Protein 1
Amino acid sequence: VAIAVAAAARQLPDAAGVDARRVRLPGGVVIEEDAGGAGIVVIEQPATLEAIERAATASRAHAWRLAVWLLIVSEALLFAALFALYTGYRAEYPQAFARGVAHDVQWIGGINTLILIASSFAMAFAVMLARAGRDAAASRWLVAVIAIGVVFVALKLAEWIVHAREGLVLGPSYAGPQELGRGAKLFFTLYFLMTGLHLLHLVAGIALVAWALARVRRGPPSRHVLALELVGVYWNFVDAIWMFLWPLFYLMKGTS
Amino acid sequence: VNLPSRRALVIAVVAIELLAIVAWLASAAGAPSALLLVVAAIQVAIGGAVFMELGAAHPAVRVAAATLLFMIALLCSGVASDVAMR
């Protein structure tokens, strides 16, 4: 890295009035190109190696945070496209969609929403505790997050079973009640597609929280705080998606 | 970095839970869809700022989030114009 930086610095115009062969690196180390062309020599080294490592760690953490947010942005756009599809079909079949919403198991949707919000808090609280070095307490909150996630999955699967018994399934096997009207098949196709995709994300989230929990129990804080923070961002994103799925499939019972 | 405090986390979870209950009751009372979506957007905004720590995030992360909002706004306007012109 130092050689590359020195080489890049050499390309600066001489008119800038600086010694183009001399470069200051993060952490306060100053290096200079060897006059003999053999490489670089260290001119100043006021900072400790820990200072350089800290700078490198902060840089890596920033890169990871940005990467996770870019993942979230792309995932959110995927869900946004599905929301747009839902809106388009709902405008085409307002009555069928309103009846479909009313037909979903309201208490399961409501309870799942309330517990998922609680899990967001538990996740954020666990991150806060881990940053403070209280790993044992953070572990307990992470176990709570996993437990809530498992309850959410169980309730969602129970609701799917209720629908399947009524013939409300995906594809050509659909045999839902006639009173739901035209468009109900589309509603339930979107219902299974969007809640199924969300469920997949939630299951992935449970696996990630379990992985983070194992790291918290095993390693020193310097090795798991960032991982836990990033898993927390992902978990809260999955909860945020549900905040929009809930009204779409459980609350919007009117045609307005 | 100004990370959310314990108090901020508790206030955020109480606010989001209350908004969820309000949305549930409003739905039972026949509230319009737009109102329910606005409540959801407020819940997500609170969660994003506090639980996802966007309020204390690096500017690059905030730019990514702002770009997402812009793209979603574009998508919404496209869908709205499609529905309006049918």
Protein 2
Amino acid sequence: VGFSLLTGIYVATDLTMREAKIPFPGSLLGLVLCAVLVHFELMPLRWVDGAATLLLRHMVLFYLPLVAAVGQFWPLLRDSGAGLIPTILVTTGVVLITTGFTAERFGRRLEKPDVAPTP
Amino acid sequence: MWHPLLSLAGTIGAYLIARAVCKRLNHWWANPFFIGTALVVAGLAWTKLSYLEYREGVQPLVFLLGPATVALGIPLARNLPLLRRNLAPVLWGGTVGAVVGVALVVVLASFFGMSKVLLLALVPKSVTTPVAVAISEFIGGDGSLTAAMVTITGFSGVLFARPLLDVVGIRSPVARGLAFGVGIHGTGVVEALEESELTAAMAGLGLTVSAIFTGLVAPALLWFLP
């Protein structure tokens, strides 16, 4: 039951977005819709919990077939490799720092009692 | 003779073997994803099967990424009280992280003269794999290349995310957790678990928020790119 509900949400949102030509991936709308349905108890958690846990635990299996195609991109990766790794490292580092700083700036007032004072 | 179902069975088998091996080894590099990929690639080479023939059989597995993405809504619903308490840091941190990540990828990829297919695969690299694949395919990128970039990002994060935040002095669990989730997706949640429950829960929120915001930001790129 849970599995068909989750699949149903996915197919429904995916088709809607495609038909409406809205520039936003359908499965993401499905994610939000699923959270809303569960939160307002329109869809009881116990119906979908088992299926969701199973899907999330074995997520790696679902994208193994995709990554297996990486062999096909080998020439491309080899030619761009020099720039690729620095790009990934630099952007990931900058994202970590900017996100952390922004969150700390906006969160200081609210979370202060919970945070251990820094020596 | 080859039957599509053999691809399916082989992939599931590779995954199960990879999981079993990782459970036994219990090392940070022993990741089901790496070993599983290696097994599948080796299997393809051994059977001399073309990727397209292989893909035909495993399409049902790839389809499941859709429902799996929808299922991510459940941890989000569970963490709603936490989200409400930290609304400002989550929204601002998530927005800044997504925008900075996408913008910087475009700048650096152009600087290094990367091809468009690689650029599009790099755009959602900080997002959890199923969503990253959806976003990338949506903006005209390639799903498999994207999945590979997402994995490299996650692995790079394991190496330097925690020391980096230490060095720049980001100490609150809320900010650290969020940074992990927004920056290095699923691996971030695992890293955060080493620090505290709160950090991990924030990382989970960060992962979801960055997925949603990147989904909103990335399509805008289509107007800027040739």
